[in-house]
Design a protein that fits this description.
Layout: H1 11-51, H2 57-85, H3 93-118, E1 122-125, E2 135-139, H4 147-156, E3 161-167, H5 174-182, E4 186-188, H6 194-202, E5 212-216, H7 225-237, H8 244-249, H9 259-268, E6 273-280, H10 288-294, E7 301-308, H11 317-344
Parallel strand pairs: 1-7, 2-5, 2-6, 3-4, 3-5
Antiparallel strand pairs: 6-7
Helix pairs in contact: 1-2, 2-3, 2-5, 3-4, 6-9
Length: 346
């Protein structure tokens, strides 16, 4: 069995320093938050009654903060218990399975809290395309919370082993850091060398289990018009864009995909089908002020899942990049149509 350690590790010393801060901060924050609730709740209620009495976004945000901290503490306690239980067996399938279940339970708790407190609901077009793993899932990324949807649909609901490509900054979350490094995820260093990072992402496609879904967000970051302009300029600065640039310029709601990681996964998992995973309903929620303005969700988040048989994916890297851009253009068209329909229904 190959090593499951994330290549993005920064050594035991770096892990310990970071976790002293993140775990210690969470342990200190939890009782302080509970002690502050008798003040926070009335203040939040007054603010909402003056600014948004029908939505009560500040009160909802306080409630979700409490739920998040509680979920983190449960996750940290469970991860500590698993570390004791599996001493000497930390590269076994049982170790992985236990953490897959922990990740699913943790995500499920967060999602139920978001549904109760933020009004988050999800509908899926193409749910059958999420069955029959293993899968390579290429997803849209537009908000602070949209990655939770794929984790729920594939992890909590179906129990798949999920392997994520995540940005390193997310290691500030202690549960994501600890459990994320015990499972086969990769925390991307976006300031590092592209070749090394691409190779590390590709290795997530090795030794896929029968229940594995590898999830990558080919845009590389959350969408914004400014980021779209920068991404288009990077394409213009390249000499080998061919006909990719015109397709990228036509995108209205997506960033042009950065195909390196996706192509590496296709190379390392040559028999695995691909799912294009998109959604509408998270637009404008790319910051905490945006979340405050957007909750509660007045309509369900709509998810689109489209599966592509591996035999239909080209073999050559250049053709694969074009194939990915074509799928992104189709997803952009679907998003545009759904947003227009939602606007007309207001």
């Amino acid at each position: 069995m190959s090593s499951r350690r994330d290549p993005s590790t920064d050594g035991r010393g770096g892990h310990l320093k970071r976790r002293v801060v993140s775990v210690g901060g969470m342990v200190v924050a939890a009782p302080l938050l509970l002690l502050a609730l008798p003040v926070l709740v009335p203040v939040a209620l007054v603010v909402d009654l003056l600014t948004a009495p029908r939505r009560l976004p500040t009160l909802r945000a306080v409630g979700f903060a409490v739920a998040y901290v509680f979920t983190e503490l449960v996750g940290l306690a469970a991860s500590a218990a698993l570390a004791v239980r599996f001493v000497g067996r930390r590269d076994s399938e049982a170790w992985i399975d236990a953490h897959v279940r922990l990740q699913a339970a943790w995500t499920g708790m967060l999602f139920r809290s978001a549904r109760l407190l933020l009004g988050l609901r999800v509908t899926v077009d193409g749910e059958e395309d999420l069955s029959r793993p293993p899968l390579l899932v290429f997803g849209r990324h537009v908000s602070l919370v949209d990655s939770m949807v794929s984790a729920v649909l594939l992890g909590s609901d179906r129990g798949y082993e999920l392997r994520y490509v995540l940005k390193r900054e997310l290691r500030a979350d202690p549960c994501l850091d600890i459990v994320g490094h015990r499972l086969r995820n990769h925390f991307v260093d976006r300031t590092g060398g592209d070749a090394a990072e691409t190779a590390a992402v590709g290795r997530l496609g090795d030794d896929l289990r029968a229940d594995t879904a590898v999830i990558i967000f080919p845009e590389g970051t959350r969408f914004s018009p400014a980021k779209r302009d920068r991404a288009l300029q990077r394409l213009r600065d390249r000499d080998d864009t061919g006909d990719l640039l015109p397709m990228a310029e036509d995108l209205r709601h997506l960033l042009p995909p950065r195909p390196g990681g996706a192509l590496a996964l296709l190379d390392r998992a040559p028999d695995t089908d691909v799912v294009i995973f998109g959604h509408v309903g998270f637009e404008g929620l790319d910051s905490f002020p945006g979340l405050w303005r957007g909750v509660p969700f007045d309509r369900p988040v709509e998810v689109l899942a489209r599966r592509f048989d591996r035999a239909d994916v080209p073999l050559e890297a250049k053709d694969r990049a074009r194939w990915l851009f074509e799928r992104w253009a189709e997803l952009d068209e679907w998003i545009d149509g759904r947003l227009r329909d939602r606007e007309e229904q207001r």
